[in-house]
Amino acid sequence: MAKIEPGMEAMLDMYFYETNSLLEQLDEILLRTEQANSFDSEDIKEIFRIMHTIKGSSAMMGFENLSVLAHKAEDMFFVIRENPDVITDVSFVYDLVFQVSDSYKAQIENIQNNINGEYESIDFSELIDKLLKARDVLLGETKGEAPAAQTSAPAAEPAAPAPAADNKTTVRVFFEDGCQMENLRAFLLINTIREACSSLEFTPADVETNPETAKEIIDKGFLITFVPHDSVDEVLKAIESALNVQSYEIVSQPVPAAAEETEKTELPPEPQAAAPAAAASSAPAPAVKEQTAVEKAQAAVEKVQAAGGAQKQSLISVNLAKLDALHDIVGEIITTESMVISNPDLEGLELESFNKAARQLRKLTSELQDTVMSIRMVPLAGVFQKMNRIVRDMRKKLGKEVDFVIEGEETEVDKSIVDSLQDPLMHLVRNCMDHGIEEHVEERTAMGKPEKGMIKLSAQNASGEVVITVSDDGAGIDPEKILNKARKQGILTKPESEYTEKEIQNLILLPGFSTNETVTEFSGRGVGMDVVKANVEKCGGTIIVDSKKGVGTNFIIKIPLTLAIIDGMEITVGDLVFTVPISTIRESFKAESSQILRDTKNNEMIMIRGVCYPILRMHEKFGIDTEITDLEDGILLLVETDNKSVCIFADKLIGEQQVVVKPFPAYLTKYNIKGEGLSGCTIMGDGSISLIIDTNTLIG
């Protein structure tokens, strides 16, 4: 077992965030370029930068195996960068780098799940050998043009003649306020730009080993003096796009050739500076000229910044736990505001000033809530793009030609929901690849379909919900096959003749149900679709299966935009108050005796505009004592979810209220409260508790 180095624990979150971001960027580049079947020079440079940065940050954290792995991958891409023509077969490069990415993710997951700072260190020796062999093969094809040893570190490259001091560019970098550990962020920045520079100096020079330099960087900025391999713009672009960099300013630039000749004739040669600060010093006469150049450079920078060019958008990464805490506080503020405004001591009083202030308070708390909610909202693009990798791997292993289409990835949902969606979506995509798309092309062409199959992942907003659809144009679900399997497993709950085609399709969501007879890498374990259903329901959502044999299958997931604060309609049943989510209510009305009917099983029904709906009496459902039992005396709410509708009967309607959803205490889980149709509770303005109705399970 390996152990995290003492003193590094505080930096782990930053390391995980930045490394995972880089690995996602790496996967995106690989998937995009693999489709084009070629790397361009920018892609190669970007992959090299990613490996170089990961190598440096892993070494700094003391993760030696990760640093060595990234180093060897960097070696291979150094050879490719120097001579892209060495790649005659790109497929082996993709496979190797994908293995590197997967290995990195596996080790990071081990570290994240560590106990007491100890974790299992994965042995990457086999993969490292593959990378070394690949590098040697590429070097053989370049006929010795690229260096054979220590190729990744720029310092080991064949040295060019030392450039004159006048060829150097100096910039001052400022990091985001409050990002902390500025010295280590400066060190990571140096690692990021090092490979793009033939000469590189920085002040403070001991940022890697001296934490005290963080204060100096905050006060004075971080000075970097460099001579680029290619162009100054390339280095500046790398600085601008680096994490936690807020802005930079150009302190000095290379002197134009004509001015350089003039200085050579007028002044003795200036000794090369040992630090960026010394590089700016010179004799009194040229100092005026240098100052003028600096002023011009700064004026140019300010002009670009004013146009939004050099000034990077101010972004900051925040621990999700802090956002959760902030969200909880806002929820408490909303609850407290309701308690103050609805205080029974104020009833009957004429308080014009108080009411005016209360309206303003409500406006501000509403804006605060919207802002906090928007902070937690993230696009689905991240989790959607990860499905590209699933399709790519299965395409190769199953030998199926499939186009993968993504739509609506910019749709935003709550961060906690995004995290919960990754596993369900992964399983659904795998299901479409394994079960949906036909095994042989001949099967598709015989039915008039294109040779290539298609899997589509889409998302859209719809009335307070996000609808995510995973679909394929494959063989679809065979109802007869599903029914036979269900019969063998003994999971049928009524005569087969009474099952509709849709009910048969949804049998695949039951625990342990699988149509695969043999266990493969992707299917046949008896665990899957029921887990998908459970994970979706944890998000407060539902999943619907819609399939047609020979045409294809759609898995439709409906989830709320957020789980924490909802708009609800409050109703009373006896002495209890319930909250029904407004998004599920179609209408509320008083019943008339002429509308009440009975079905063949003597169940109460009500006729609304020619359609019959079942009636659910809340007092009977939850065993509540109430004096209002006549349907004409109470209130009916028509609620609809998952294509099912029912009329809820309650005593009376209180009104609309924005409520903060609170989970039930853990000790109540043994009573299966959620299975009875309750999703949580909320605190009312008078301090009492209201139970929140989960219409999905209530109707189901």
Q: List segments where confidence is low: pLDDT < 50 over at least 5 consecutive residues.
A: 142-165, 257-298, 300-313
What's the total helix number? 21
- Helix share, percent: 40-55%
Helix/strand structural class: alpha+beta
**Proper CATH architecture of the largest domain:** 2-Layer Sandwich
CATH superfamily of the largest domain: Histidine kinase-like ATPase, C-terminal domain
Tally of structural domains? 5
CATH first level of the largest domain: Alpha Beta
- Ends: how far apart? 49 Å
Number of strands: 24
**Can you summarize the main beta sheet?**
6 strands, mixed
CATH T-level topology of the largest domain: Heat Shock Protein 90
Overall pLDDT metric? 78
Q: Reading side by side through the largest sheet, how are the strands ordered?
A: 16-20-21-19-18-17
Shape: globular
The whole-angstrom Rg is 32 Å
Task: Report the sheet-strand fraction.
Answer: 15-25%
Structure description:
The protein is α+β, with helices and mostly antiparallel strands and 700 residues long. The chain has five domains: 2-156, Four Helix Bundle (Hemerythrin (Met), subunit A) (Up-down Bundle); 165-260 and 274-306, Histidine kinase CheA-like, P2 response regulator-binding domain (Alpha-Beta Plaits, 2-Layer Sandwich); 320-378, Helix Hairpins (Orthogonal Bundle), CATH 1.10.287; 380-560, 2-Layer Sandwich (Heat Shock Protein 90); 565-699, CheA-289, Domain 4 (OB fold (Dihydrolipoamide Acetyltransferase, E2P)). The protein contains 21 helices and 24 strands. The strands form six sheets. It has a six-stranded mixed beta sheet with strand order 16-20-21-19-18-17. It has a five-stranded mixed beta sheet with strand order 8-10-11-13-12, covered by helices on one side. A five-stranded mixed beta sheet has the order 22-14-15-24-23. The longest helix has 25 residues, at 12-36. The radius of gyration is 32 Å and the shape is globular. The two termini are 49 Å apart. Mean pLDDT is 78; it is low at 142-165, 257-298 and 300-313.
